[in-house]
Amino acid sequence: MNSRSRTRYVSIMWWGWTAVCGAVLSLAGVFLYLNPQIPSAETYRHVRIETPLRIFADGGQLMAEFGERRVIPLKLADVPPMFIHAVIDTEDKRFYSHSGVDLISLVNDAFDLMANRGEIKSGASTLTMQLAKYISLSPEQTFIRKFKQMLLALKIERELTKDEILELYFNVVPFGKRAYGAQSAAFTYYGRPLKDLDIAQLAMLAGIPQAPTAGNPINGPDRAMKRRNLVLSRMLEQGSITQEQFDVASNSPNTATVHERDLDIAAPYAAEWVRQQLVAKYGADVYSSGYEATTTIDARLQDVATKAVRDGVFRYDRRHGYRGPVAHIDLPADPSAMRVAVQQALVPYPPHVGLEAAVTVTVAPDSFTAMRSNGEAVVIKADLYKWARRFIDQNTRGEAPTKAADVVAPGDVVWLKQVTEGWALWQMPDIQATIIAMNPTTGGVKAIVGGFDFAANQYNHALQAARQPGSGFKPFLYSAALDAGVTPATIFMDAPLVFEDENLETQYRPKNDGSRFNGPTRLREALYRSINLVSIRVLLQVGAGNVIDYVKRFGFDTTDFPRNTQLAIGGGTMGITPVQMVRAYATFANGGFLVEPNILKEVRDMSGQVIYKANYPIACEHCGAKSASDAAPNVASADDPPPANDDTPIAAPRVLDERNAFIMNSMLQDVIKRGTAIRARELNRNDLAGKTGTTNEADTWFNGYQKTLVATVWVGFSNHAPVGDNEYGSNGPLPIWMDFMRVALQGVPEDTREQPPGVVTMKIDPKTGEPATPDQQNAIFEYFLAEHVPSVRATTTQSTEADSKEPVRPIDIF
What we know:
By secondary structure, this protein is α+β, with helices and mostly antiparallel strands. Helices cover 33% and strands 16% of the residues.
């Protein structure tokens, strides 16, 4: 080599080494600049997969799922090998041989970078780099982000094994439609677990992450099919599938549809109640922490309660007449155009709560034809629309229809319901109803329906609607009377009362329903017949102040209770929620203990560890339970769960003498056996008790129980509108309660409550309430507290002020 050549060689070598050193120094500088900006690879070993909150019934049935991401954690051992091949063959065929960065792919990216003036369009990355992007980095396609991916991928490969990287990848990669992770994607698009999918379906899923929104098989079916076939080609090239498997899979149709996570039971009001408690307890992270909450809800009873409420609301709605079509359209004469017009008109009215909207297309004398959204024409016969008398107001309906034209016209958009006899005219109700059922021993809520339709109205009437209880409050007044020495045989005069007040322009004259008077009436009879004037006289004798102090023991907040005669009939400023009523009636059902309504039973974290376990006070005596005062303090509000305690039972406080509870139970059983709730005798049980409630304004109630289950039903309008003069607790709420209890008590043996010590049974004269003579033929048995047994000569008639000519003064009876 001559000197000139040698000089050139040295020069080239010098410049080469200078370039290499410069590149190394540049890369080192970039590394030193970017390295502090990327997370430590150690964090990937402890990455938290964002898993939604799931809420379950007591038997493990899924009630609700809350969270933006739908995630189902998956172990690598549970991933089908064919899916692993599909992903690796397509996304990173040298996955097991590189250290986080594939140099060949990097060269392709470099060309892409130059061709697109600094923007990387292809996004070719190793699985490890994609993992870094999905978990830690922003989504934009830039050189800086790409370099960060490379650095982080190198770090991850040093910290995690290949299997750990794959498992993490399969759990965090987005697949569109809120699905994150392969298992969630399998359920979202195919309704089955990953292990049950065929090769074509696995290849489809493997191709989605490149464009999870635009390229999923729902939003972009053509693009998804092309991508699926590309995945299959790559699998064939790598020998992961045979030619025969490729031919079958590549010719398979797109079978993907959106499968929402199926709920085992519909309990939206219960789930929302639990969600609020968990957010208050754990914060907003509860939506992504994978918590699983178990409730006290009984799935079977919840389903029955939902159906009972809807059936009861529909019955009320039909009793009050037809409010007309929901909309009207002009029908084109051309059949094809008509079908299109019908489909467009029905878009705002999707099927809901068992009803389906349709458009009336023809009207005959005794029937009409309506077209469904699928183009099917159905005939509604006279028997299935004749109920539709025109609604005028809550007390008035129009004449019964004599022909179909009296009800509908062509172009009317109407609601239909498919019944046994065919398609029937229906309508969406305005009225609301609620039921809450509870175990009277534990306070555990077994079913709750807060309104007719959660999707339309999330207001939970069971927990939030404080309404006048009407006569449903009378049992607490009568319990106070028993405590004050009044007996079930005490006679009160059912006769007119007149009150004068300077603040009123006219005299106040309370009345009974129907304005009937019965004269001398025993306390027991006054309760089961729900006689208002007797209740007022009981209040006058016991004293309103004493009554208000007494009823606090049932859990009532008496701050806004009326301080006048309205207290006797559950009116005035009184406002009680159904959950408060069911709690109060539970005291009669369990023999005198005040329990806390509760719904949250247990909470587990993502690892299955119990992080909260409820331990509410239970109704028991001599059962080895510690007193509530000795236990960790529980939160009394039903809106917030108590702190977790040990498993030692806590005894609920006794707030009512068991003898008082026994006598009140017998009186409330008479409400069903011979009183305002007599229709409940259809259930053929002798251990049911309860009380109807009706106000002059807008509320109807039934509160009832059996020893193992107590339930309150309320029916009314959210805006306090009148329900109608002929609506009572006995014809609205009671049938709902009966429908629920009929199923809920199947297989539950009848309870015979033992007469406690200190309660005496005596024969009395049913007219006078005095002890009967030995030979009296019409004598009946009555219960008395031992200290209040009447003597033979006792005079028991009370409150005969109706015979006085002077009016009772004043209305305020404190």
